[in-house]
Amino acid sequence: MAFQLIFPNHRAKSKLAEKRPVDSGEMSSQVRLRLLPSARCFFDEPIQVKVAGLRSRQVVTMRARLTDEKGVVFSSSATYRADGSGEIDLKRDPSLSGSYVGVEPMGLLWSMRADTLHKSFKENISFNPHVVKFSVHEGEGRMLAEAANERLLIGDGVSLLPIKEGNIQGVLFTPPGEGPFPAVLDLSSFPSEKRASLLANKGFVVLAVAVMTDKPDNVKEMHLDHFKEAVDFLQQHPKVGSKGVGVISRSKAADIALSLAAYVPGVEATVWINGCSANTVIPLYYRKRQILTPLPLDLSKLIPAESGAFIIKDSFQNPLAEENKGSLIPIEQAKGRFLFVASEDDLHFDTKAYMEEMVERLKRHGKDNFESVCYPRAGHLLEPPYVPYCPSSVHGFAQQPVLWGGEPSSHAAAEVHLWKKIQEFFRTHLSCDATQVS
After folding, report:
1. What is the pTM of this model?
2. N or C: which end of the chain has fewer CB within 10 A?
3. What pLDDT, on a 0 to 100 scale, did the predictor assign at position 91?
4. Is 251 a catalytic residue?
């Protein structure tokens, strides 16, 4: 049966819609800062920021501030000029200077930077919202108005359940209702559940599993069987109606996702984001034998940058070199569909070249089970939209800060486009059969 039942979490939406726009005039009796359509929304939803009650053509500074679960403060600021009526609308008006310039409706969010170097935003997955404080100031001085934006990662009715079963260690997110729902295995290189919780809000049963659950130095081999257990777990879940499972991944996790698609039955749709076409760093085993050798990482080839971070891209060997061909993942034997996503300014992997090589290989084998998208001026860390852009942070394997690449505005636009594309891809290729749900 064609899948038609996957929609955003309307129950959560309706509750959010009941919230009224915030009006804050406490700092000044005239100035009002409004967040539309609501001051409470999901993390991946845009808002419209408007200011009224200013003097005609008045120049003000707008700021945003957010504290993550580690206590790191992220902030941004931008200078705006009011129109003749004393109003500013970020959807219409350009920032003149500051963290970004030009018309960027969500610029105050994605341009937020950490107050210390080499930090990425760390989310705490809970039912409590992350609060972004927006404010309007006279120049750099007196606050004229402020408003709080409550950004939720989990909607009403979505359940969160830690899973420790066999070799599976992860977190299961289940939408409200009986289903049937399509199933997605969200693989991250290191523990992270933000993307999984947001997909569950859209009507997917999602199991978030980290590829690395120990320090990389302690991991001498990796077993695909452990991730097959996660695929089987999802297929047997009573609310799952899709005949196969989707897999979403990025970076090191992306080569595990390709390996699942190539070797494990039941993987119907694989999203590969800024990964490698080969198995990287750690040998991969399946059914008690080694199936892929590791593509080496040579940390002596790290290139230092002015910020104190390093460029790691040249530290990976060429997977097409004769001595590394045992690490190439045989995706040509996969039965499911692929969505390949490459950022052209990825400073971690030569992602575009890897993607082009995989596309050519599939074509040579007479395959057309793929689509690809390339984002100019975007960096390695493509996330769900409206997360603070991260230029550099500590690399899990190198244990040094590395540059991720990307021009912030283009990177943010890529995240908005990709997030919609991921959902469309899974809805198209993970058909649901109501008879499979008990």
Report:
1. 0.91
2. C
3. 98
4. yes
